[in-house]
């Protein structure tokens, strides 16, 4: 974080006992800096922890922010206010809906936000190509389970005080909606351990994390943390579940 420069000295109390404006400003600045340090977990010397929160120091752990759509790029398709979809732009593929057929070749090399017209229906049908965010992903993904929507996800991240560099355990990967919101908060140096007892949902989520370019921040575990089953397996360590539940993570993982 960047804190405000603090005054070296505070003006003295005036003769009538009231604080000067400089005194009040200095106290507000110091209080604001202390609140920021407490919130983001930094020390008084911000230089010692800047490398933990600044993505510049983690180029290999940062998703390249491109402006043009390249092959295999995740693209959110805006069809209408209440109808979003997604594709991975693949040369030769076609996305079809009631508005017509949209060729992926028309997406490539276009900037995010572009309006693309269909090659059918005389070009009257159109969609918008949007850059993916956790909020847009939650509205467009395939629901394997009931998901946590963006308003609830924002409150969860706020109350947990998530910030870069944190290690988070999530019980119930489900469709991965909440997982993506967490990953945005703890990047670029954090780690998410997410657990799912259903093998199919576990494998599907792991594949989506990889295709969305965030698999370096997350470990997907196939395990019932509530201890209700005895046949699940942890995909990271390939050890059987003893049925006792729990996360089974070593210290400082």
Name its key features.
25% helix; globular; 9 strands; 6 helices; three-stranded parallel β-sheet; four-stranded antiparallel β-sheet; alpha/beta; 253 residues
Q: Structural class of the helix and strand makeup?
A: alpha/beta
Mean pLDDT: 81
Q: Residue ranges: pLDDT <50 for 5 or more in a row?
A: 10-14, 44-48, 230-240
H/E series: HHEEEEEEHHEHEHE
Number of strands: 9
Q: What topology, given as strand order, has the largest sheet? A: 2-1-6-5
Largest sheet: 4 strands, antiparallel
Estimate percent helicity.
25-40%
Instruction: Please count the helical segments.
Output: 6
Cα end-to-end separation = 25 Å
- Rg: 24 Å
Strand content: 15-25%
Broad shape = globular
Secondary structure layout:
Layout: H1 21-40, H2 50-53, E1 74-80, E2 83-88, E3 94-97, E4 100-103, E5 115-117, E6 126-130, H3 134-140, H4 150-159, E7 167-171, H5 177-186, E8 191-196, H6 199-211, E9 218-222
Parallel strand pairs: 7-8, 8-9
Antiparallel strand pairs: 1-2, 1-6, 3-4, 5-6
Helix pairs in contact: 3-5, 4-5
Question: How is this structure best described in words?
Answer:
Helices cover 25% and strands 18% of the residues. By secondary structure, it is α/β, with parallel strands linked by helices. Strands 2-1-6-5 form a four-stranded antiparallel β-sheet, covered by helices on one side. A three-stranded parallel β-sheet has the order 7-8-9, with helices on one face. A hairpin with a 2-residue loop joins strand 1 and strand 2. The longest helix is centred in the N-terminal third of the chain and has 20 residues, at 21-40. The chain is globular, with a radius of gyration of 24 Å. The protein starts with 20 loop residues before the first helix and ends in a 31-residue tail after the last strand. Residues 10-14, 44-48 and 230-240 have low confidence and may be disordered.
């Amino acid at each position: 974080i960047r804190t405000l420069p603090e005054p070296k000295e505070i003006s003295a109390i005036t003769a009538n006992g009231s604080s000067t404006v400089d005194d009040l400003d200095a106290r507000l600045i110091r209080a604001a800096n202390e609140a920021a340090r407490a919130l983001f977990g930094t020390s008084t010397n911000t230089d010692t922890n800047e490398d933990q929160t600044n993505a510049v120091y983690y180029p290999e752990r940062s998703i390249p922010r491109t402006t043009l759509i390249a092959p295999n790029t995740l693209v959110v398709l805006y069809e209408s206010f209440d109808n979003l979809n997604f594709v991975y732009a693949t040369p030769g593929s076609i996305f079809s809906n009631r508005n017509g057929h949209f060729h992926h070749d028309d997406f490539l090399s276009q900037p995010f936000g572009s309006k693309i017209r269909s090659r059918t229906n005389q070009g009257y049908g159109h969609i918008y190509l949007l850059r993916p965010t956790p909020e847009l992903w939650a509205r467009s993904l395939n629901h394997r389970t009931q998901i946590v929507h963006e308003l609830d996800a924002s409150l969860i991240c706020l109350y947990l005080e998530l910030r870069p560099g944190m290690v988070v355990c999530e019980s119930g990967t489900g469709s991965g909606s909440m997982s993506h919101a967490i990953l945005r908060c703890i990047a670029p140096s954090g780690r998410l351990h997410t657990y799912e007892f259903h093998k199919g949902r576990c494998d599907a989520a792991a594949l989506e994390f990889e295709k969305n370019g965030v698999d370096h921040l997350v470990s997907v575990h196939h395990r019932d943390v509530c201890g209700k089953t005895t046949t699940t397996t942890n995909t990271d360590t390939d050890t059987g579940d003893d049925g006792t539940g729990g996360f089974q993570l070593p210290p400082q993982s």
